[in-house]
Amino acid sequence: MLSKLKDKFHRHRSRSRSPSLRNGSSQSLPNVHAIVPAPSGPVEIPQNGPVDTAEDHQSRHSLAIPTINEPAPEQEPIVEDPPIAEAGDDDDEEGKPAQTPSDEIWDCAYDELKVEEPALVQAYEKILTARLLSENDTATEAIAEVNCIDQHDKVNRKSQMQQLVKLGSDKISRETKAKSRIGDVLPIVNLSKNIVTEVVKGVPQAALPWAAVSISLELLTNPISETKANSTGVKHVTEQMNWYCELAMLLFGNQDGITAGMKRELRAKLIDLYKKLLSFEIKSICSYYRHRGLVFLGDLIKLDDWRGIFKEVQDAEAFFNEQLRTFQSVDIGQDVKQLVIHAKNEQTYRQTDEDKKCLRDLHVTDPRMDKTRIETTKGGLVQDSWRWILKHPDYQTWLHDDDKRLLWVKGDPGKGKTMLLCGLVDEITTRVGQSGSAISYFFCQATTPTINNHLAVLRGLIWLLTGQQPSLISHVREKYDSIGKDLFEGPNAWYSLTSIFRNILHDARLTTTYVIIDGLDECTTGLSELLELVKEVLPLQNVKWILSSRNWPEIQASLEDTPDAEGVNLSLEVNATVVAAAVDAYISEKASKVKLFKRNDKLREDVCNVIREKANGTFLWVAIVFQQLQRMKISFGGLPALMNRLNELPKDLTELYDRMLQQIEDLDSIEESSLCRTVLGICVVAYQPLRLQELATLAGFKDEIAGPSELRILIETCGSFLTVKDETVYFIHQSSEEYLTTNSRAQSALFTHGTKEIHHKMAMHSVDTMGKVLCRDVYKLQDHAILIDDITTPEPDPLLSLRYSCSNWLRHLCISMARFDLRDGRVLEFLKEHLLHWLEVVSLMRNSHQVVADVIHFEGLLQQHYPDSELLHLLHDMRRFTQHNSWIINNAPLQIYLSAILFTPKLSIVRSLFEEELLSWITVKPFVERHWGPCLQTIEIEIGDAHFFVLSTDGKMLATSSDSNSPRLWDVNSGKRIHTLNIRDVRQIAYSKDSKHIFAIADNDLVFWDVDSGKEHRHTWSPGAWPTMSNDGKFIASRTINGRIQIQDMDTGNQLYLVQDHLNYETFEYEQEMKLSNDAKFLAFSREGERVTIWDVQGNAENTVIDTTRVNKVCFSSDSTLMGYRAYYNGRVQDEIKIWNLVMRREVRTIPTRPISSEEEFRTFEFSTDFKLLAGGVLGGSIMVWDVGAGTRLTQLDFKGEPAYSLSWSQDCKILASASVSNIQVWDMTTLVEQEPVPGVGPEMVEAIAVSNDSKLVATRSSADVVKVWDITTGSELRKFETGRKITRFAMSPNSTAFSRDSKFIYTSGDDSVVKWDIDLGIEVTDSILLSENQHWRYGVFSLDGSLYTRVTASGHVTIWDVSTGRETVRCTVGDAHVEAMAFSNNAQYLCISFEDESFGVWEVVTGDRIKHAKGHVCVMTGERGCSRCNTWIWYHGVAVSNNARRVIVGYSLQYENEIWIHNEGQKIIRLSLEGQGFETLFAAGESYITTWGGRIDLNGLQTGCETLDSYQTITLEEIRFEGYGLSADKSWITWNGSNILWLPGIYRPHPRGNSLITDRMGVVTILPLGLFIVVDERVVIIGFSGPPPR
Questions:
Q1: Which ranges constitute the DSSP H helices of 1062-1121?
Q2: pLDDT by residue (tens digit) across 2-21?
Q3: φ, ψ at 604 (rounded to 5°)
Q4: Rounded Cα gap, residues 569 and 789, in angstroms
Q5: How far apart (Å, rounded) are the C-alpha atoms in residues 720 and 723?
Q6: Where is this region: Disordered (predicted)?
Q7: Are 676 and 718 in contact (CB under 8 A)?
Q8: Burial level of 31, CB count in 10 A (0-12/13-18/19+)?
Q9: Contacting residues for 461 by C-beta, under 8 A, at least 6 apart
Q10: Could you give the 3-state DSSP secondary structure of residue 1208?
Q11: Residue 803 has pLDDT above 80, yes or no
């Protein structure tokens, strides 16, 4: 136990020596806001008494807790020393601080050491004297002839030690900053420096021994001549002193009880140990100063045997620890238990690098900096303007009454709520420093996007709390470690943050905590959710809240509706008298800062009197008036005019705004007045605060007024409506924005021709500037495969002036469509030249969701106003382009210029405009369709993430869920995930009719969410077993205990109907299936594999029993009149779909399923909402759509090999969405066109592949024995041969096709012959090889050059033919073991065969002799093609042998992993674990390489991994270095030397044989010297390159 505790303290020792550790109470942490630096100037040594410094007031028990400043973009958060707290109440009655048990032990140890080693301690105290007497702490040559350390007056000695420690700490700080070689000891230095400083402040008796620690730290920062043993010892001893200090406080705080005697004995042993520790420290210090020239240390003691001295320390520690273990064997009550609890807590107390990264990601704003900015912007915090509240009875009641946990400060705009709370933050921060409580606060501002929402509030509060008390970060790390930054920013952020916040407030380590939130009314997003959270946590006894807002009824109603928590409402209007007095004080303070008034007291008082009379208790009114006074240039002669102007000021805030606006209109310069109105108009209609550069862009300002200084002057001219902070323009107050936005006077002044004119100008100015700045790779990333999460904004940011424009120009253009003139061709020209550049920036700014919506909106407006225009055609194509490439835009900005163009239809307008953007290194381009097809969007999801799936009724959102992942919401237009709902084990999901809510069945609970807010609700009732909802989410069916099926109303839970299920399910509950029609009129139920019963629920009678095997193959129309299903007869599937009229109870239509055969299975059916169309998802990877009325096939949608498990129609029937295991596709059903045929190997999938010697031709052979030859240089099909010969799967092998040496002919094998084909003529050559038909042939392969062919029989007889002559060359017997793979060496001299019994052999081709046989370390086949070692399915074998037969390679494609075994003669076997990487032909052209889908692997360069007990060496995928072109592990990228270069859309990605987790489809990849030949299902994809990719 001791070693574990010791290890925990060693790594995470406490920064607090709080009394809470001794008395069991929970001591919270000091102030995190005010950072008061330690004095840096010289400190005089007192002669007659103690020095009265602020440090004296610091609690002697509470150690420093670092505060974290807002992290800079490129640096770690800065950890600073904490502020010095105010005076506490820790001194005893005589004014002397009490000693802790640890302090007493240190003193005893020091006193005894002084007796035992007087010369050593005397020398040490002389060193302290020398340091105290030195004016410069670096002048260590000063020699003290006498010991000046006060031996009697401990108070005086305390002040001496304070100065001594401060000098040492300052020196350490300077030297550790200057030297880089001490990085390994810096954490110890910083931690120990804080501990030493804190202890000495409070306890004079502990000063002398702890000063040793302070000085010894210099040894770590100045290792000039000491040995490594000494340096190691100093570090160890320093750390152990901290540990034993904590241990002493916990063990010896209470000397009572049955173990008191044992504790006294243990205390004596600890004193002995302390003496050893102190002796080592002091000897180290003496040795250090001897080297620095203090001659009186010269002959003190031999200080060279550091190993021996350190060994004495370790022996003393071992002895004490043994005594402690003995002590622990006795029941010592709560003391050691508390030690255990404390040690566990301390594991997370000290911040690690991971903690700091977590805090950086959590950081969205530093509320402390926000407070400073607000105070600065408003002219500073005037103390007398807010301190009145401290004596107010409401505040006092809240402060001292534990039951009053909420103080709500409410008032109208401008009443000083924010500055009042700034003052309260300061006041409570001071109180926190005295009492050890915690404080966290946040200032909402509606005009600043980063601090005007509920997410920012929680992030700010949590950030401050974890910064004060690092142990609390464990609640954040619990979720952060597995999710990362998305925890705080992702669609599930609110749920995650609320969970973290609740856990923090419930943490037992957290004592009284004050939470302050200002400006609830300025929380423009998520206010209701925030109020709900406050209501939820208000009953917590240890948290007190202060909130401020306007007098909004909804806020009042929410806060007052908290039955378990009482609060106090403090209305500023009700307290108008004290507020007015505060305003008077504020006026006096502001007036004192006006230069003109400093020379004229009477004038100042006159002005103040006028302002007091008109202020009406409104701080904002006063602030605006004084802001204008500061700008006035008034001479003494103009004082009467000044007074007149003040007397004319209106009292009302709105009237004041009117006056300010009138002053702008009355400016002497018409141009200046116009510029001011332009600036104000832009700020009003903009969607967020603008940076100065963005404002200049939107206004179209040129050089003379576009600079920051000129813009600042212009903004000052705009009265007091606006202010500038950190280069960003804000409204001075929310009320000023509201005035300009809603006041009719302001609207007419700013928008003479309406707001649409401003919108239009902003859009067109944006277009003009974007056209001048945007370019390819605007950030100079020079990496086309870089992902958005790996990109950081460069400095300076080239988009600084364009960020707002790039995100919003199209939205402003849509709003101002009435002013858009098509003859103004700037928009068209911009898109023609800069569309891809703009989309790159949209991707960089992660704003595709809004931009795609704007594109769709603009396209609709053009269709309405300018049909058949060139701009409309471009917008339509642009919209299809952005949706088609949604993954690229959301994830890989620079792939817009490569993959997005490469895989866009040939006749796309966007492709024709920007095809030159494709790098010329891509020489052979893959086949793509000519026109856009019906597929609008492909959304890539995690495998199995859309087991349940539904489209919103408005067709704008998708919801997906599965039983293992949380439900996710997707934007249909942009393909971007917008929400993740915090729940798992979802069985079904549905949208409400208005698309505002989502219903789900989760682990038999009923849950629904508000789509906009994501707020979760749960029904108070639960359904029965195996529930299922109607598609509209109105009703739910489930099974009762007695086997009946109940139907309930989803809103109320009322049981509406009971249905008697006559089937006997026994115990197989998973076989029970049900489906409910929308209005709950009909219910389908069955047992899996049996006939389905259709029950008339309302009539309580059977409607019909249908022949189909699964309920999911039954669908109801939305009005419950029709039912569709796949027909079966006597258990056999039929080639037709039956349409049954449920009302008439008869079949009304039969729809043939052709061309889908009866052998292909339908996975799902779904009627369109108008039940005119019926869609069915086919297992083979397509969707059939039929016209129900006509009974005919309307179209076939190719799903690219993945079966559609779910289908969903939009309410208007224009959109059909389909979900497979790995993606979702959205189909446009308004413009159905037959999809173009694509080049393929078909019919059926590829079985064999061959490459010509010059790698210019590739031949494929399908399972239907169709052979095609492909020209790699052009990417086209060169020749097709249909053999028409009989062939079995045993005769078909990966090498059953081969080219001749000259690539003019191709050879294929059949059951009875080998056929030679002339590629140029496209005919069969007559000199074929006839094979014996009476043999049961098992397997056959060609040699690489096609010169030899071999085949093996089931009985193990091998025959080799010379293809050129047709003669047999050799026969041999290989045994009766089952043959799995065969291959010739490249020179055709050897034949290698692998067997299912874990062995392989090598035979000479000429003689037929076996020259090699090996067993072991390969997969062991079973009778069902399984591997007994791997316990998995084996799909594919490959084998290769080198030209000298010294190297054999065996490859296996397992069910979930691929691996290659390399047998080098005389060497250990090597196993390559390829995981998902596939392989085809193992040897490349040169035998020093093998070829995989990931690229070539240099066999001579393999770095073997660790040996295993099976005596082979494994090399993992991460350790393998791929060369040349290949595919990434997930097949989504084409790679070069293992690095991503070109993204592959899903339909072009292969899956290794047997390694497809999602379908039965196969894939084949042939890696060519300069390209790839890919087969996906039947589709052929050829991509060629001129050489390595450009850098």
A1: none
A2: 343 334 333 333 333 333 32
A3: -60, -45
A4: 46
A5: 7
A6: 1-103
A7: yes
A8: buried
A9: 367, 440, 441, 442, 501, 515, 517
A10: strand
A11: yes
CA distances for 233 relative to 225, 238, 285, 1028, 1562, angstroms: 14, 8, 12, 70, 64
CB-side exposure of 42: number of CA atoms within 13 Å?
Answer: 10
Question: Of the ranges 737-741, 1234-1238, 1242-1246, which is most confident?
Answer: 737-741
Show the domains of the chain with their CATH numbers: 101-346 (no CATH), 353-574 (3.40.50.300), 757-918 (no CATH), 936-1003+1012-1021+1079-1228 (2.130.10.10)
Residue at token pair 């958060």? 77
pLDDT tens digits for range 842-857: 999 988 888 999 999 9
- 1549: nearest Cα among 1579, 1523, 1584: 1579
Tell me the C-alpha distance between 1328 and 1318, whole Å.
Answer: 12
CA separation for the pair 949, 1204 (Å, rounded): 11
Rounded-to-integer distance, Cα 1473 and Cα 1470, Å: 10
Instruction: Estimate the crossing angle of helix 260-291 against helix 207-221, to 10 degrees.
Output: 50
* Range 1475-1506 burial, b when 16+ CB lie within 10 A, else e: bbbbbbbbbbeebebbbbbbbbbebeebeebe
Rounded (5°) CA angle 1376-1380-1381 = 120
0.85 surpassed by pTM: no
Token pair 């009492």: residue:
435
- Asked if 83 and 54 touch (Cβ cutoff 8 Å), the reply is no
In this predicted structure, the answer to whether residue 664 has a pLDDT above a threshold of 50 is yes
Q: CA geometry: angle at 1090 spanning 1089 and 1094, to 5°?
A: 125
% the chain with pLDDT above 70? 73
* Cβ-proximal residues to 1056 (8 Å cutoff; 6+ apart), any chain: 1035, 1047, 1048, 1049, 1080
Tell me the pLDDT of the chain averaged across its residues: 76
The number of beta carbons lying within 10 Å of the beta carbon of residue 856 is 17
Quote the pLDDT of residue 1040.
Answer: 81
pLDDT at 86: 37
Higher pLDDT, 129 or 543: 543
Give residue 289's pLDDT.
62
Among all chains, which residue has been given the structure tokens 């399972």? 1263
Helix 101-116 / helix 260-291 crossing angle, nearest 10 deg: 60
How many Cβ atoms sit within 10 Å of the Cβ of residue 139? 11
Instruction: Summarize pLDDT for 1565-1576 with one digit per residue, the tens.
Output: 899 999 999 988
Q: How many CA atoms lie within 13 A of 930 on its CB side?
A: 5
Candidate ranges 929-938, 1337-1346, 1393-1402; pick with highest mean pLDDT: 929-938
Please report the pLDDT score of residue 657 as a whole number. 83
- Element containing residue 1452 per DSSP (H, E): strand 1447-1454
- Alpha-carbon span 213 to 197, nearest angstrom: 10
Beta strand 543-549 with 513-518 is: parallel
Residues written for the chain: 1591
* DSSP annotation string for 49-83: S----GGGGS-SSPPP--EEPPPPTTSPPPEEPPP
* H-only helix segments in 546-669: 553-560, 576-591, 595-598, 601-615, 619-631, 639-648, 653-665
Per DSSP, the three-state class of 1167 is strand
Residue 1586 to residue 1591: CA distance in whole angstroms: 14
Averaged pLDDT for residues 693-718: 87
What residue type is 538 in one-letter code?
A: L
User: CA-to-CA distance for 303 and 290, rounded, in angstroms?
Assistant: 10
Q: Residue 638 has what DSSP assignment?
A: G
pLDDT of res. 806: 95
Contact, 775 vs 837, CB < 8 A? Answer: yes
Our measurement of the distance from residue 986's CA atom to the centroid of its chain's CA atoms, rounded to an integer in Å, reads: 23
